[in-house]
Design goal:
Distance between the termini: 38 Å
Shape: globular
Strand content: 15-25%
CATH superfamily: Barwin-like endoglucanases
Keywords: Cell wall biogenesis/degradation, Lyase, Signal
CATH architecture: Beta Barrel
Number of helices: 12
Organism: Sphingomonas xinjiangensis
Structural class: alpha+beta
CATH class: Mainly Beta
InterPro entries: 3D_dom, MltA, MltA_B, RlpA-like_sf
Largest sheet: 6 strands, mixed, barrel
Helix content: 10-25%
Protein name: peptidoglycan lytic exotransglycosylase
GO molecular function: hydrolase activity, hydrolyzing O-glycosyl compounds; peptidoglycan lytic transglycosylase activity
Order of helices and strands: HHEHHHEEEEEEEHEHEEHHHEEEEEHEH
Length: about 425
């Protein structure tokens, strides 16, 4: 599934343009146990869940990267160059982090062996031994699994940047009722996606979305037009939200949970997008001087939009991109591999620099981001070497951590033993 790697801070402060068809928002995943459930009674729900401040991090000192030679303009990990990282047994991997990563890696193995690795680092056969071993490996010996079957590899200079995303939970209702007046639309029946490569080889791989107006193919309605009723006859409303600011942010995240009036939960996920370019309102607001120091987190942006509702609506409408949803059923939200994504373990990456499904160790300047992560998702804003968007699950804790996640440090990929030797031999012509 195609996804938007939207860290609350990174995406809100970025000014993304996806070209002809903007990078798509995908499902954004489920929480790791044990995350506290929200109150079941509507009267107990906070009026504005975004009241929670960004979690104050506990600082840490990252391990230094290995000496390497910088390669400018590299478009893949193989082109950026790789060097050996530290021995895995020397890394501060906690048992809890290892157990979560072991379970996530076990899920990823099938895809790792079938997919073509866009990073240029691995082949499907490289993963055979570790994937065979992980099937019956006991969770209690999770750390030893990674020590025995992997080696650390540093891509380029190893300098890493990590943001965070989560699965939002907002108030919603399956039916329109007082207090629930913001429509959540399914994919419009008149939305058309055209593959331009069918018309010209020079446009291969490019697509546009729009609609037919008479005998012309025109851009699809933008956010303002949709909010003013343009979809009244062409799209079903799958649910109703209580807060326009919350549903705006849920569109950025790509999926979430609706806490229903009876205490139940309805999960919704990305189903389509109107084809308009994405505009990051956080950067826009910062450039206009609307956000002061300490206000550029997701929570700060939301607070300003609520305190200035008319101006806030106009600002949100400057992002012409609009996301359509569907109800999700079955196993938790899915990442780019089509597999459930796990809080505190899964990360969105650029697959040109990290093999999708591979583990990675992040040593960061905050303790919560330090540990083993498994690359199970991608995102339109997650580009380049050693760029990670860490997933924190659902609920208040996830929201508080992801909303302020901005960590820097060092990253090492965990690749099957022997891969580095082959890569270095290829580089020297051996």
């Amino acid at each position: 599934m195609r996804v938007w790697g939207a860290a609350a801070l990174a995406v809100m402060l970025s000014a993304c343009s996806g070209g002809l068809v903007p990078p798509e928002v995908g499902t954004r995943p489920a929480a790791p146990p044990p995350l506290r459930e929200r109150p079941a009674r509507e009267s107990e729900l906070p009026e504005t869940p975004a009241h929670l401040p960004a979690r104050q991090p506990v600082g840490a000192t990252p391990l230094p990267p290995m000496p390497s030679r910088a390669v400018s303009g590299a478009t893949t990990a193989a082109a950026a160059g790789v060097v050996a990282g530290p021995p895995i047994e020397s890394l501060p991997i906690t048992q809890q982090s290892a157990e979560r990563a072991l379970a996530a890696f076990r899920l990823s193995c099938g895809s790792l062996q079938r997919r073509t690795d866009g990073s240029g680092l691995t082949r499907g056969t490289d993963w055979a031994a570790s994937c065979q071993a992980v099937r019956g490996w006991p969770q209690g010996d999770a750390r030893d699994f990674f020590v025995r079957h992997f080696e650390t590899v540093q891509v380029g200079e190893g300098a890493a940047y990590a943001t965070g995303y989560y699965e939002p939970e907002i108030r919603g209702s399956r039916e329109r009722r007082p207090g629930y007046e913001v429509p959540i639309y399914g994919v419009p029946r008149d939305l058309i996606e055209a593959d331009l490569g069918l018309f010209s080889d020079s446009l291969k791989g490019k697509r546009v979305r729009g609609r037919v107006d008479g005998q012309k193919f025109v851009p699809y309605f933008d956010r303002t037009q949709i909010e003013q009723g343009a979809l009244d006859r062409s799209a079903d409303v799958i649910a109703w939200a209580a807060d326009p600011v919350e549903i705006f942010f849920l569109q950025v995240q790509g999926s979430g949970r609706l806490r229903l009036p009876d205490g139940g939960v309805m999960r919704i996920g990305y189903a389509g997008q109107n084809g308009r370019d994405y505009t990051g309102i956080g950067k826009l607001m910062k450039d206009r001087g609307l956000l002061g120091p300490g206000q550029t987190s997701m929570q700060g942006i939301m607070a300003y939009l609520r305190a200035n509702p008319e101006e806030g609506r106009a600002i949100m409408r400057e992002n012409k991109s609009f996301v359509f949803f569907k109800e999700l059923t079955g196993a938790g939200p899915l990442g780019a591999l089509g597999l459930p994504v796990t809080g505190w373990t899964s990360a969105a990456v650029d697959p040109k620099f990290v093999p999708l499904g591979a583990p990675a160790f992040l040593s960061m300047d905050r303790t919560d981001a330090t540990g083993l992560w498994v690359a199970q998702d991608t995102g339109g804003a997650i580009k380049g070497a050693n760029r990670f968007d860490t997933f924190w699950g659902a609920g208040d804790d996830a929201r508080a951590i992801a909303g302020g996640m901005s960590a820097r440090g060092t990253a090492w990929l965990l690749l099957p033993r022997g891969v580095l030797g082959r890569l270095q031999g290829s580089a020297t012509g051996q």
